[in-house]
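Figure S7 source data.
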Amino acid sequence: MNTICILGGGGFVGSHLVAKLAKTGVAILIPGRRRIDLRALDVLPTITTVEADIHDPATLDSLFKGVDVVINLVGILHGTRAEFEQAHCELPTQVVAACRAAGVKRLLHMSALGASVDSASVYQQTKARGEAIVLAAIDLNVTVFRPSVIFGPDDHFLNLFAKILKLTKILPLANPNARLQPVHLDDVTRAFAVAINDPTTFGQVYTLCGNDVFSLEDLVRLTAKKLGLKRAILPLGEGASYAMAMVMEWLPGPKIMTRDNHYALQTDNVAPEGTVINRFGPPLSLGANLDYLRHEDSRSIYALYRCHARR
Ligand SMILES: NC(=O)c1ccc[n+]([C@@H]2O[C@H](COP(=O)([O-])OP(=O)(O)OC[C@H]3O[C@@H](n4cnc5c(N)ncnc54)[C@H](OP(=O)(O)O)[C@@H]3O)[C@@H](O)[C@H]2O)c1
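Tokens for the predicted NAP complex:
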């Protein structure tokens, strides 16, 4: 294995996975929508970043030439049905076709725990269809990963609650009873790194979860505690949670929550009974690994202000 192409390599999971793989000396190609967003990765040895439209089949074919492994991390949490379809279904179709055209035999694909065509959430429906598309490519050596919510430095989840908790004394919380089994970023990147060269993972789907199940309310309270903040957290009922998701969906600016997220949270995001959760090593505990919340750059709170002010 000489060269890996990582789609979505500039994102939260992607940039940490790239850093881990770069230490092995492997060559990594990272196409992105805006090369400027990939600048931080350029400093790592053996990494090439390139601005490219990965939805263009000819571009994808040429990106995959000479590549040994493709990792697809592209995903969105908020969007229109068409945007979910494009990111989670059309792109995997094009990735499979481009792997065949370029002779790439190994494909690792990021899905999500709870992906199901029966889900009320378009995110979860399209993630399920994306999985099915790549797993149907039996001529490729495909591995699919289904993480629960991922925590760790730079995460979009607990860091978001941390920012909100710093801004407000009272936090009305939608879907407080939603159950989640968060997995540490290092466990997720380790699973990908180990699986790349492990033939026993070919054709397999892996659930990635931590050891412990939390309610969303537990996680927000833990975040406040870690930050040393005394906050009133007001758990909302079903109707109020839906209304809050609807209002937040309509607010201008980057989305924090939408009705689609609300639908996804109606189903427990926990490992199905009997899942082996230490296939790639014992998962890190959430309680003992939240220090990053305190070390977060204090100026990042201004980023949230700027984002709401649309500047
Ligand atoms: N984070 C979690 O808790 C979690 C849990 C379960 C599953 N996952 C899955 O894990 C994967 C990585 O998540 P993440 O947290 O690292 O997300 P992220 O930080 O938002 O990164 C997503 C990456 O995908 C790219 N991307 C998104 N839409 C695209 C499009 N239409 N065309 C081209 N590139 C596109 C983004 O590029 P830009 O930078 O150009 O936007 C970014 O590089 C996703 O598939 C996500 O669904 C994440």
